[in-house]
Write a structure and sequence with these properties.
The complex is a heterodimer of chains A (414) and B (442). With 414 residues, chain A is of the alpha/beta class. Chain A contains 14 helices and nine strands. In chain A, strands 3-2-4-5-1-6-9-8-7 form a nine-stranded mixed β-sheet, sandwiched between helices. In chain A, a hairpin with a 4-residue loop joins strand 8 and strand 9. Chain B is an alpha/beta fold and 442 residues long. In chain B, 52% of the residues lie in helices and 12% in strands. Chain B has helices at 4-7, 18-37, 53-73, 75-81, 91-103, 129-142, 157-164, 195-207, 223-245, 247-261, 268-275, 277-287, 299-306, 345-356, 366-369, 375-388, 392-413, 420-430; strands at residues 9-13, 45-49, 106-109, 120-123, 147-150, 170-175, 184-189, 211-215, 324-327, 330-336, 341-344. In chain B, a hairpin with an 8-residue loop joins strand 6 and strand 7. In chain B, helix 2 (18-37) packs across helix 5. The two termini of chain B are 43 Å apart. Classes of the chains: A alpha/beta (414), B alpha/beta (442). The interface between A and B is medium-sized, with 15 and 13 residues.
């Protein structure tokens, strides 16, 4: 499809706190809010902004592993829990590992295009602090091919991206890459400090660079990554409404307070296959290219990006995959400050997965909420200045090791 | 050194006790390394021996929980150990298998005869020489090749060796509480201790990643050699102070001084409560015969014991009432030795502060200082100021620090410790002091 056959908007985004280590109120041994709490909080907040549940035609819920983290399935039936007004309305749940949130958005967009709905409530959530990290790693390994689990690292996905980082070090130089990864971390935390729902909002470390440059410890962790290179273990939910032009009128929101989806690119690659290129996220590249092609924009017109930095190296390789730098030059792009909040294209302006947090099933929706906030001037302390020649925003949500991808290009509604 | 031949069959006497259970856990880690890590084909047996059957049941629960923690922490390595087990895919599978495999090596017993098959006998029973001698000699008669590693904290190893007829097959292996966490291990060779056993004990300690400090075979060794004399000094100081201030305030002030002004993790009387008034009394009694010219007992301590003011811990680790009463680890009441009853801390706190008078303006806390890079600088400033103040509190603190230093120096002079550094290592690692007693501050 070259272009969307009708206008699709997103409005009324909301993020709960991303709860986990780093938050002052988090204590691993004390009781915490459950998934019901997060789904309700996010869903109700969005409903409130769009005039209530009666305006909603359909609901979609994105989640990765509630079946194991919380022993809970049949997730569509949690939508009517948000509000009685959603009872008997169509609801669906989608799963694509850490791209589940992005897939929820894709599903909602398709409902608008299919004209089965004018207003879709999209919610993403994950509550994963129910188990210790080494057991959570087992669950998250489900985003990879289970038949490779046995030979994989105890911390499976850090192991997977550690290998990619190792390959990148070898090909493009370790020292500079580590520098860029440290810079990525510093950017993430500095941005998160400006967003009160961010997991690293309370971070007061005065020496972020020192933390990021701590020696690697392969004996206790992985060969090529530090903890600072990794996203967080998080509980949280995000919600947003996906609406048609009619839907926008129905909910009574000014287009200026909405973002328009101008391009979407989805791509999947075979989970049973090893990456064809260890230093390139080829599936992400394909999805991003599709989204930009549909939108009819180039990277030079994109003013801010929410990229899936489950690991700092994935963020850097993501900048390359989208097209901001050639393969191997993403490190320079980051080191030159282009991705920093005052740079050419601020990336992950509320911290991304490393700084804001990574409640896996919520992340794709969280990215859309952040872009909506930035493009409509609702980002509060984290607000960046959108430049005229770069009016577009972009989200890139990845499931597994470059396997399920959703890229979306947005602009402010007119 | 190949540990396997000796580690194949090991017994822990007093395994259900606080120290014994920790030693058992450490040994189970070591056996796991050999059996699972190094894929030894040998059969390994770890006998947990204790007089109390119910306590042994509880012990297994404790060991299991410790093994689980250990496995979780070391999951990266464990996956390598179990790499060839196709059916163990998730971390959880590996962790559970590890716990099962190690638990399968542990057997409980209430019978001393169980040790007759063992190559190594670790002992952590109560501090009673006659009992140790009786058990060791019985085992030795039935198991002539056994090596004994005793956790005694104060009884001279040479005396046990001689009285039990052990032919040099014993070494002092003094862990600190809790053994699984505490890095320090005092190793005490007696005159007769065999070289092979000595080498083995060092190799095992290294494998356990302990900080080894050798101590001469003198009652109390380094750790209790310092602690007991420090405690006696504190009791004497409190006794003097009690003449004018009464016992509650005296206990409270000396405790506060030894904690806050000496920058230690706990005050001296809280430490006695932690160890137990009873245990402290036993340790002193076991040391006394070796030091005929010193009085290693205290009337107040004995009287506290007789009045059942004993301290120590409950099975869940919470503190029993002793010199103080506690709530969530904090002192709430102080025992008034004169009146024979507890008084509220709040009622005496202000008076004590007034009596102690001026204190350094620089406030430093053990909790923060102990891990600070600039620890030495802070301590130097603090103690310098302390020396310049002429108040009851400051003077008592300086005298206390000087006495502690003198005890440390005496341990070096009498060759109990090989060096000042060894004394300081014991106090810093075994007692968590922020600085060693032999220093330039006092």
């Amino acid at each position: 499809m070259k272009a969307l056959r009708k206008k699709v908007y997103m409005v009324a985004g909301y993020n709960t706190v991303s709860m986990g280590t780093g938050r002052k109120e988090f204590h691993p041994k004390k009781p915490r809010p459950d998934l019901e709490h997060y789904i309700k909080e996010a869903g109700q907040a969005t409903l409130k902004m769009i005039g209530g549940a009666e305006n909603v035609d359909e609901g979609v819920i994105g989640n990765f592993m509630a079946a194991r983290f919380n022993k809970q399935a049949n997730l569509p039936a949690f939508l009517p829990m948000i509000d009685e007004g959603l009872k008997y309305k169509p609801a669906i749940s989608v799963e694509g590992a850490c791209a589940s949130g992005g897939l929820a958005l894709a599903s909602g967009i398709k409902s608008i295009l299919a004209e089965t709905a004018d207003v879709v409530l999209a919610v993403g959530f994950e509550v994963q602090n129910t188990m210790k990290a080494m057991y959570g790693a087992d669950v998250l390994a489900g985003a990879g091919w289970m038949k490779t689990r046995k030979e994989g690292h105890a911390y499976f996905f850090p192991g997977v991206f550690s290998k990619r980082a190792g390959a990148y070090y070898e090909k493009f130089g370790k020292e500079k890459t580590r520098e860029a990864m440290a810079k990525w971390y510093c950017n993430a935390i500095e941005n998160a400090r400006l967003c009160e729902t961010a997991q690293e909002f309370h971070n007061q470390n005065k020496d972020l660079e020192g933390t990021a440059k701590m020696p690697l410890n392969p004996k206790k962790f992985v060969d090529h990554l530090n903890y600072s290179d990794c996203s967080k273990v998080s509980d949280g939910a995000s919600a947003i409404a996906i609406v048609s032009e009619e839907g926008l009128k129905k909910v009574g929101i000014d287009p200026k307070d909405a973002v328009e989806v101008v391009g979407i690119g989805q791509a999947a690659s075979d989970i049973t296959q090893e990456p064809e290129n260890m230093t390139c996220l080829t599936t992400m590249k394909a999805a991003a290219a599709k989204a930009m092609e549909m939108a009819g924009v180039t990277v030079d017109q994109i003013g801010t990006v929410e990229v899936h930095d489950c690991f700092s190296i994935a963020g850097i390789m993501g900048a390359e995959a989208i097209g901001f730098a050639e393969e191997g030059k993403g490190v320079d792009f980051v080191l030159e400050g282009h991705t920093s909040r005052c740079g050419k294209v601020p990336f992950n302006t509320t911290g991304g997965l490393i700084g804001w947090g990574h409640p896996t099933g919520a992340t794709g929706v969280h990215q859309a909420v952040t872009i909506w906030e930035q493009l409509t001037g609702k980002a509060g302390d984290a607000q960046i200045e959108m430049k005229e020649d770069r009016p577009y925003g972009m989200t890139v949500n990845m499931g597994g090791d470059d396997k399920s991808l959703v890229a979306i290009v947005y602009k402010r509604g007119e | 050194m190949d540990l396997v031949p000796k580690m194949k069959n090991v017994s822990v006497l007093g395994a259900a006790g606080k120290m014994g259970s920790g030693i058992l856990v450490l040994l189970s880690f070591e056996m796991a390394k050999l059996k699972i890590g190094k894929k030894s084909n040998e059969q390994f047996v770890l006998n947990a021996i204790d007089v109390s059957q119910p306590a042994l049941v509880n012990l297994l629960g404790y060991v299991r929980s410790q093994l689980l923690k250990h496995a979780e922490k070391n999951i990266v390595e464990l996956r390598e150990w179990y790499a060839d087990k196709e059916n163990l895919v998730d971390n959880e599978d590996v962790i559970n298998q590890f716990v099962e495999d190690v638990m399968a090596m542990i057997q409980t017993s209430t019978r001393i005869e169980t040790t007759y098959e063992s190559n190594l006998i670790f002992e952590a029973i109560k501090e009673d020489k006659d009992l140790k001698v009786k058990l060791f000699s019985q085992i030795k008669q039935n198991n002539p090749n056994a090596w004994f590693l005793t956790n005694t904290s104060s009884i001279p190893i040479g005396e046990i060796e001689k009285e039990a007829g052990l032919n040099g097959d014993i070494v002092g292996y003094h862990f600190y509480n809790p053994p699984v966490i505490q890095k320090l291990l005092e190793i005490i060779k007696c005159d007769n201790t065999g070289d092979e056993l000595n080498e083995f004990s060092i190799a095992l300690a290294k494998s356990m990643r302990k900080i080894i400090v050798p101590s001469k075979d003198v009652a109390g060794f380094i750790g209790n050699g310092h602690f007991m004399r420090d405690a006696l000094y504190a009791l004497n100081q409190a006794q003097k102070l009690a003449e004018t201030e009464g016992w509650a305030k005296a206990f409270f002030m000396i405790d506060t001084i030894s904690r806050d002004l000496l920058v230690r993790p706990m005050g001296i009387f809280q430490l006695i409560d932690y160890v137990g008034v009873d245990v402290t009394k036993f340790i002193l009694a076991s040391m006394q015969p070796s030091f005929p010219n010193e009085t290693l007992s205290h009337g107040v301590l004995n009287e506290l014991f007789d009045r059942e003011v004993k301290g120590g811990q409950y099975a869940d680790g919470s503190q029993k009432d002793g010199v103080f009463k506690y709530q969530k680890g904090r002192i709430t009441h102080v025992y008034d030795f004169g009146a024979g009853k507890y008084v509220s801390k709040e009622d005496i706190e202000m008076d004590c502060a007034a009596k102690m008078g001026e204190l350094p303006t620089l406030k430093i806390y053990w909790k923060t200082v102990v891990r600070d890079k600039n620890k030495a600088e802070y301590l130097e400033k603090f103690f310098k100021e302390l020396h310049q103040i002429d108040s009851v509190g400051a003077n008592l603190a300086v005298a206390y620090g000087q006495n502690s230093k003198a005890i440390g120096q005496m341990l070096v002079d009498t060759e109990v410790a090989a060096s000042a550094e060894d004394v300081n290592t014991v106090l810093e690692t075994g007692f968590f002091h922020a600085y060693g007693p032999i220093n330039d501050y006092f």
